[in-house]
Amino acid sequence: MNRRIFAPLPTILALAFVASSVGAAAENAAALWDIEALGKVPKVTWNEGEKDGVKSLYYEGEPYKGKPTRVFAYYAAPKDAKGKAPAMVLIHGGGGTAFGQWAKLWADRGYAAIAMDLAGCGPDRKRLEDGGPGQSDKEKFEDVQADALKHAWTYHAVASVIRAHSLLRSLPEVDAERTGVTGISWGGYLTCMTVGVDQRFKVAVPVYGCGFLHENSTWLGNFKRLGPQRTALWVKHFDPSSLLPNCKTPTLWVNGTNDFAYPMDSYKKSYSVVKAPRTLCVTVRMPHGHEQGWAPKEIGLFVDGYLAAEKPKTFASISKITTDDRTVNATFKSQVPVKSAGLHYTTDKGVWKDRKWQTTEAKLDPAGTVTGVLPADNSIVYFFTITDERGATVSTEHEVLE
């Protein structure tokens, strides 16, 4: 049976001091980026012509090793929009580039959208002579030096995202007060970084990406090669855990239970440090990829809830799970009728991506309770999902029953 444990006053004061210290550290980490300068509209060159309503452009990037740079991007806007449109910044992941079809997807939803390349490349992934750093492990990890932090890929990528946001907000067809950001994989990582620096976004959706990568992620080998001192430097400036406490933006966190890059323990630590409203959409074995990362219907519905002129009904909200022996419960509220619920669990330990998950149907009570029963195993990781009649799924945080 769950029991409340009340901390003594000295403990509460100590926790408050830690929280204050974390907030101060996040502000210091954000200071690497000059938000006042990045908030100004960058110089832009629009290319002639368009394809399927998608235009291409170059905008001014951050200087790289003493030389000016340009960033290539695609832009699309809704046709026959009534008044100014909301807008989205779209951040690709590792191995990706500026995706015109992603911008068009959002334009078809009624949004202006910009999708930039963050690997120093132009059309067809061709390296620009005046491009910024590439996106290999060298630029992401090895180039992080105390005396040259602004040579690192993450610094340039975050700056390029913020510049794209400033450009987007300046366009006459865009409502500057209705902008959001979403990113996939390394783009999800950058989304987590960016919302800790740029407070102008009204909504954010990091897909897969998270922080605490030095504690558990597919890049542990990279940190081992960096060594303790350089890893600490990287974490201080370029791990989202250093910036997420700054986030004031409502976020939807989309991931799968077996993601090879961003495991569930680091994921939970990341969304747990965010003070802004957060919604989880963790599903069993969500595939990892760009198209898979922008496909979930929950992303568009969630963003609409904050940016669209005609807002849809909100997602279901679920309480933290409570346990009584092997019976687990949560309460929920939903504006849209709920059609199903699932209790997902694994008895495996070790590497998250290799764990096998089981799903059983959970019982829905019309009064707003979801209940499930776990098997009689010694150690179980588990969580609920609830799906409404639109097919929109939300999840609880995962819990561990020892």
Provide a short characterization of the protein structure.
The chain is 28% helix and 26% strand. The protein is built from ten helices and 19 strands. The longest helix is centred in the first third of the chain and has 22 residues, at 9-30.
Q: Would you mind describing this structure in some detail?
A:
It is a single chain. The protein is of the alpha+beta class. It has two domains: 21-307, Rossmann fold (3-Layer(aba) Sandwich); 317-401, Sandwich (Immunoglobulin-like). The protein contains ten helices and 19 strands. The strands form three sheets. The chain has a nine-stranded mixed β-sheet with strand order 1-2-3-5-4-6-7-8-9, sandwiched between helices. β4, α3 (100-108) and β5 (112-116) form a beta-alpha-beta unit. Residues 1-8 and 10-21 have low confidence and may be disordered.
Q: Return the structural class.
A: alpha+beta
CATH architecture term of the largest domain? 3-Layer(aba) Sandwich
> How many independent structural domains?
2
In whole angstroms, the N-to-C terminal distance is: 13 Å
Question: What portion of the residues fall into strands of 2 or more residues?
Answer: 25-35%
Keywords:
alpha+beta, 5-stranded antiparallel sheet, 9-stranded mixed sheet, Rossmann fold, globular, 402 residues, Immunoglobulin-like
